[in-house]
What we know:
This protein has helices at 13-22, 46-51, 60-66, 75-78, 103-119, 144-148, 161-175, 192-202, 214-222, 234-251, 255-261; strands at residues 2-6, 28-32, 83-85, 88-94, 130-137, 152-157, 183-190, 206-211. It is α/β, with parallel strands linked by helices.
Amino acid sequence: MITIVSGKGSPGGTTTLAALAAVWPAPVLLADCDPAGGDLAPGWLGQWLVAGAIRADRGVLSHATATRHATAGDPAALLEHVQTVPPARHVGLLAGLTSPGQHSAISAAGWTRLTASLAAFRTATGRPADALVDVGRFGAATPWPLLLAADVVLVAVRPTQRHVLAARPVLAELAERIVPERLGLAACATSPAGTHEVRAALGRDIGVEIPIDDRTAAVLSDGNDAGAVPGRSPLLRAARRAARRLHGTYHNYTPAELRVTAPLVSAGVLTGGTR
Ligand SMILES: Nc1ncnc2c1ncn2[C@@H]1O[C@H](COP(=O)(O)OP(=O)(O)O)[C@@H](O)[C@H]1O
Ligand SMILES: [Mg+2]
């Protein structure tokens, strides 16, 4: 479980997670847990949302409602709230809230159940799946269980003074409850020099580095080009490198081994009852 959180100012956390999911070398859950409301369905997947292929009412909120009488997270209960992402069929979307007011309906217990379900999730074919979790901007409504249970928490930051200053208090608060080895940075819309500056200014490791690439970013954040993920672009090349390295880190192999021994998972693994 990799969770991305940000400070003020929209550095690009959601775009970075969408990019990682699109090129993830295995089945992956993309969980839109921004308490201020999800951006993935109306953004990257907006055309499928409008066409009815993605449903806004199936996701974080429907899981919380369906499990409200459960005491612990039930991994099997999650599958029916997960939808296949049309332009990246190895990705299962847990759609986010459709309005900021809904987060109060989830409550801390709801986020705790979801965290347990994500951690134990199995695809329709019984395989475990990684989870990429977007918790949006850090604040009073932040779903802490999704930060505390993550293998790594990355704070999204752009290489600008404003974003670096916004990331600092977030890192300080997170560091009170998350050990340094599990707390890093996602450098968004960056350059090699920018990443260097961000690392130096914030004193944390870079978990993901995504270059500035307006065109691909607009596909993933706003559904430009009908949400079709380009085969090649600077953004996706970097995301692919990061995805392989992260996947390898938590599954104990090197990216080079992946090419030889672990085939990419075919489409439609994360289907469940969603089609
Ligand atoms: N790597 C990038 N290169 C260029 N623009 C980017 C990049 N990442 C994000 N953006 C842009 O930044 C804006 C905010 O992105 P978003 O992912 O919604 O931020 P957040 O989730 O942190 O609020 C969007 O317009 C998006 O297209
Ligand atoms: Mg976002």
